[in-house]
Amino acid sequence: MSAEAADPGAPLRRRSRPRIDLRRLGRVALRGPVSRDRLPDAIGHVAEAHRAHHPDADLTILRRAYVLAESSHRGQMRKSGEPYITHPLAVTLILAELGAETTTLTASLLHDTVEDTEVTLDQVKEQFGDEVCYLVDGVTKLEKVDYGAAAEPETFRKMLVATGNDVRVMSIKLADRLHNMRTLGVMRPEKQARIAKVTRDVLIPLAERLGVQALKTELEDLVFAILHPEEYEHTRALIAAAAGPDDPLDTIADNVRGTLRDAGISAEVLIRPRHFVSVHRVRRKRGELRGTDFGRLLVLVGEDADCYAVLGELHTCFTPVISEFKDFIAAPKFNLYQSLHTAVVGPGGAVAEVLIRTHRMHKVAEAGVVALGNPYAQDHAATSPSEPSDERADPTRPGWLSRLLDWQESATDPDTFWTTLRHDLAQDREITVFRTDGGTLGLPAGASCVDAAYAQYGDRAHTSIGARVNGRLATLSTVLSDGDTVQLLLSQDTASGPSPDWLDHARTPTARIAITGWLTDHPDEAKPTSSTMTSVDAVGPGPADPAAPERDAQAPAPTRTRSGPRATGVLVDGPDAPVRLAGCCTPVPPDELTGFVVRGGTVTVHRRECPAVAAMQEIGRAPVGARWADTEGRESDAGCRVTLVAESFGRPRLLADLTEAIATAEAAIVSATVEPPSEQRVRHTYTLQLPDAAGLPALMRAMREVAGVYDVSRAQHPAPAG
User: What was the pLDDT predicted at 296?
Assistant: First the structure.
């Protein structure tokens, strides 16, 4: 809430339409005489607030709910000494001011009756219907576990289960916590601190996720006062000192009003005070506070297009601070929030931050999902009133609550759930990526292809071997950006699983929980992450032992076999001399050739496009003409030798599958090296002896068809010294 809302005794310092002051309204709601022949004034305040948002609402059910709540809680007292009925009344008033629909308010009045009185769910259902019963039951389940250090994770786990089925349950819970935080002063300091920390770590981020800024900001100030009392008092003193008639924001607001009036744009320009925590954050960021740092301008218009018209006028008639511009209308935040943010320089160099939004956007910005009314009304219209559906559409964007419900079911350990929940709540921005089938995935900023794989395929993502991002091959560690198109590549080997390295790139609870679970269940089957270079000795053309390469892949000592066969079927210009094919490019017919005389008088023959050719010419070596002999002049049984490089994504048994494909093509492996994995990519280099050069294209195709291999090419690197 505003600074004034957090401290009701503070003087009002700005002329503007007041923000929702829930604390003041909560206290006023409990005042007023009570006579025997009418309801107390408190329910009248609730009705008035409700009618402000829903003029045609039927208030009869609210009055009946109050009668049941008041009679059932009669005689119960809060720790503050107030009658217990003041609590459900205050919670209901909070929600009424936010614009909650009648069903939510009815359930709010009754939310503690089943837990703390003799009222049963069957009675609630009989008197108020299935929807109210469903909500009361959801809130009741959240209260089954006492608050405590060990119980908190399970408590909030149940909260998420209920929230995933109906977001209104969370709305009631947030309002319930807000009222409890307001009256926390009657508890011991250590208990105040514990509840405040849980509120800070979980409920405030949840309120942010649901877009309920009016609840979030007051909760922040209440937590701030408990956990950081000295800084809170210092901030309050700064706000009080800045209050006065000479507010620099007033001058800028008047100038903005005049600018928009001259442009023919109908707009409401208000000064929006910052709440305590917001002022504290600005002070920590900038050091010394400016006069305009205690509030922001809020410009409200009728249509979306008017927002951009206002922006254009402000940037034309004032000097804009370009670094402060953000467009949350074209790209809404994950919590439904839409607005244009900018900052302009006013008279005397004063800088004012400006928020531009429609009235509808403003309502959603303040109340979030509460402003949606009953987001399940359309779904329930198609079902029988006596049988409410448990499958409810997720009204959040883009399905954040549904994702939480999915991953919490996989987190059987409460500590794992608690850790992943807090990690997820710490993410303050989401991105949307597109699937090649036309669907979308909502992910936190910084998410990688690993996260996208588990978001799209669930446990099937264990077999992921890579991805294409915007049409280009990419590793699973690739970080995605908003608007990317991603295609996940899965292995045909359903027994394969994730590598421990994936946890370094996973940002979502869905991915982290799934990967951790698989690694726990398969401690001996994780993908190897050895950084040593490996070598495979010569393998004959027969079927290879699939297990042998996997064992050899762990060999600590790297070795390479230099390939330098005597060339038969190659003719070179000049005197008769030994001829051999270069190991760096291993030419085969019909490659164009060139040769160079090396020590000992041997002529080494290269493919003409081999990089070594240019290097030899640069140091002054004269090329020797070389060409293939006629077919009749070649000894066909000698075959040919070639070096191939296979680029692949790492996975178990990849080396075995490649060697099997090579053996099936009747090629003998003279030598092979597997380089250390880099960003989950693996590079294999094979020197092969083929019976006939004509079989090379088919061999390369067979190797490319091995799952995880995305390219096979002829070697184009210098031959290693042997």
Answer: 94
